[in-house]
Amino acid sequence: MKKNLSKIYEPEKAEEKIYRLWLKAGFFNPDKLPLKYYSKKSKYFITLLPPPNITGSLHLGHALNAAIQDILIRWKRMKGYKSVWLPGTDHAGIATQNAVEKALKKEGVSRFDLGREKFIERVWQWREEYGNIILKQLQKLGVSCDWSRLRFTMDKNYTREVQSAFIHYFKKGLIYRGQRVVNWCPRCQTSISDLEVEYKEEKTKLYYIKYPISQQSAVSSQRSAYVVVATTRPETMLGDAAVAVNPKDKRYKNLIGQYAILPIQNRKIPIIADSRIDLNFGTGAVKITPAHDLLDAEIAERHNLNFHQVIDENGKMTKEVGDQYVGLSAEECRNRIIAELEKLNLIKKIEDYIHNVALCYRCGAKIEPILSQQWFLKMSDLAAKASKAVKSGKVKIIPKNFEKVYFDWLKNIRDWCISRQLWWGQALPVFYCNEKKEEASNFIVSLVKPKKCPFCGQCEMKQSEEILDTWFSSALWPFAGLKEKDRKRFYPSDVLVTARDIINLWVGRMVFSGLEFQKKEPFRTVFIHATILTKEKKRMSKSLGTGTDPIELIKIYGADATRFGLIWQSMGLQDIAWDEQAVIAGKKFANKIWNAARFVLSNKPPRINTNFEHELPRIKNLTMMDKKILSGIKEVKKNTEKNLVNFRFGQALHLIYEFFWHSFCDKYLEESKKQLQNPKQKENTQKILIFCLLESLKILHPFMPHLTENIYQLLPTKKKKILMIESW
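Predicted structure:
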């Protein structure tokens, strides 16, 4: 390390050296810190890295999340806590399988050509090559995770924890296998959670179809010959089980309890009343297709209706629709049905309509709700536990308004479909009889394969080829895979920092999983940070060219300037309209700090020891400016502390910036140039300059760690090996 500061701060050279210095010291691991740095009463402070997918690369949302956590962990470490930030990566079932399949496609082969075993080998190879890219990018940002405790959700111990959780739930009667309507991706050939479905506006048509009233219905001189239903998906009408209206809808009061004739199928279906029907959609009368709509399935269960599956796993029409439509795609079938209905004069009108289309969140294919045999986790009792944890205050969500998102999901929760028809992931700990495959009940739930089949007594049982939902696995993140010693120390954690889009996908599930398996809430506080949007407040997208790559920002401006830009704009709002000017401001601020340090170090006192700050209160003949700056540094430290306690990161940075740039540099440094010329004031001024620089470096360190560490290494007054463990 150079003994003096160069004229220009060059982050591209300094940051990598500083990160190596931290790694060599080993102090990201609290177990490596010498006992003298802690008191006997030192407490732990634990936070968890939301495990990024192994398919991912750093985006601004990741960078903001990591910068906030790093501020917290560095601040707490300097305050004497045994601070540990637990990192890891997620195997990301659908995303990773898709990534490897795309790579195979370029080679002209598919996973089916390779077979399951060879395909899994290729995924592991892919993971070794690409799986830790995002972790290396996080290191570029300067994060101080305890890399010695790095976890991966497909590690042997972690997988065992996940499978043990499945067995626990099954024995408790909370997991069951059954045929229910699920969100199905025809492209990925798997079920996906309703929380993983994305919706995109699409211009489509709203079809108004006349369903004749059955002549056997109750006689009414005023009743219409038809009930008109509005639908965006006429192809599913071949699986209709009823027409439904809202019981408060006076227009249809006389039709409730009567029957309609389903066009084309000529099947009689009841007209029912259900409070879930929207009076304002279309005509207020809707078709109920239980096998192809989640809400319709719920209505069907309440009214004891039949399920008719008319679309299969490949998105093709089934035999239920009749010979003229079987095997067609949904779109082809729709066109033929509309043509047939027009011939029958059963189309009242067709309107243009903007419709939210359900898409697979990984591959973008249109989702088909279909009836499917899957494994489900009963949610009512678990949801009640998760709800109680927040209502009781044992888990605190900040900002508080996000509690509503959390409670709304738990209140309206469905049983969770936890099985996936993928090859990459944690296999269900379920073994089937090979001889009696047709009997769905012939399975054993176990961590190990039974030596003898209890059903036929002779076959070698075969493990289920289905895997568990990735979110079932990540719900155990706060404790799964931790060694017993670490589990006792690091569970529960103190703070979880995450984004609002996974409050339900992840946060709620971690809460009930922690209570179920550890008998304690997994964390005490959940901080929901802002979502970064484009300057026009639109969602960022790499494919549309509206995304900003933080690694490119780091190359241009440095990691500290990038961190500055992220935190500077984090002022408590739910959204950040991204402005690169904040990063440029961070670069300028870094240069300001560097130049101020050069001035201070060029005027350091000839005699000074590491405890010099304790001499300051005894210094006599302080000038008005001396008193003002010493009071200012004390005040800014106190208010920074208050802001950090209350998760007001942007406010804290604005405060520090204002003090250092204006109070210290513009005012005191300028005044000090005069005082340094006065022999009576010179030594006092030199000591105060050094003191204010040191204190400023401490306060700034959690925000701009590389720069502050770099300068600290050159101070004649440094007490400890590195700034990272200086006393706050």
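Summary: The radius of gyration is 32 Å.
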